[in-house]
Amino acid sequence: MTGPEHRGDRAASRTADLPSVCVVTHPLAAAGENATRSLLDILSAITSVSLVTADLPADSEIRERHELIELTQKGAGNSVLVAAFRFLLNQLRMCRVVAERDEEVVLFFGATSYLLPIIVARLLGKTVLVEPRGDVPLTLRLNWERELPDAVAAALAGAVRALERAGFAAAHGVVTYTPEMARQLDLHPEAPSVYPTGARYVRTKEFSVERPYDDRDRVVGFLGRLDEEKGVRELAAVARSLPDDVTFRFIGDGDLREWLESDLSDEVERGEVELTGWVDHDDVPRQLNDLALLVMPSQPTEGLPTTILEALACGTPVLASPVSGVPDVVREGETGFLIESRAPEPLRETVLDVLARDDLTAISENGRELIEREYSFEAACDRYAAILSEVR
């Protein structure tokens, strides 16, 4: 089994044995939608599943592929007060919907601070799981600091973290992507109520090694949103200072696109830096197959960036920040390398040290083998089937 379109008899037999699942999420932005679609694909292959959410994009594939209960088409809001009001209102709506659903398991995906519906689901006798996608309180604090005094932002984020911790305690179990992600959320990966190997899956046929590593040029790349949080300014400084025989490629679009075009105009003109702009998802495997190294100075807010898994599936070594679940996948000197500093000069030296290694072909192969072994669709289905079997 390599994807949700190939479920087979084995998946059909699972459905009869496992409890049905109602997935509950907060309003979904693009990144959240992708992660939720991945989870739904896994669950729908092993049991019956529905989704309760808000503000789902009109063109989302989820609308056609899964049973959907949409609380509202409004997002979280642009101000703290509006967001707080909608946060409370959506919790009340979730309570009503959860009470009406027949599923035996309610899985709060990302919506781990929605304490009221978590408690209501438990009181109704349902099995409750919570699955964080990253460090939401930290993400909120960083966003709020742009418009509020730091002390106020910290206090509000602290309140959200308290709600999240209460949600962890109230649930029957907490699912994390990897054991290291559990630790960074102050959860013990070996605790009976913690399931530390939920993770995601990669479409291993779509994301595969199309260009052997030895045939690749010395192209170093970043793939993602071009904004402050992704370390794009630091990467621009690195790109400017690399030797002439190394090309740096920025793959993606975002708020810093115009700044990059201006700041690196000379390097772009000489062909030392490339800006691809927005890339359709179907073209991502080809882009990853062109790279000798993917650099991802990830934020501590992220759980396990999908781009890292997709790069490894394409045999592309990854240099990434050791945040959340990343070290469980980017294994130093085995499948990739960990960033010690995001400052331009030490990051530049690390990139050059990596490119000078004589074992990158073996590291490329190790990355692909890891994805096939632990992050294929079949492996993800097995993990979630085991979790549901244990909590029922």
Automatic annotation (TrEMBL):
GO terms for molecular function: glycosyltransferase activity. InterPro entries: Glycosyltransferase_grp1. It holds the Pfam family Glyco_trans_1_4. Transmembrane segments: none annotated. This is Glycosyltransferase. It comes from Haloarcula salina. The lineage of its organism: Archaea, Methanobacteriati, Methanobacteriota, Stenosarchaea group, Halobacteria.
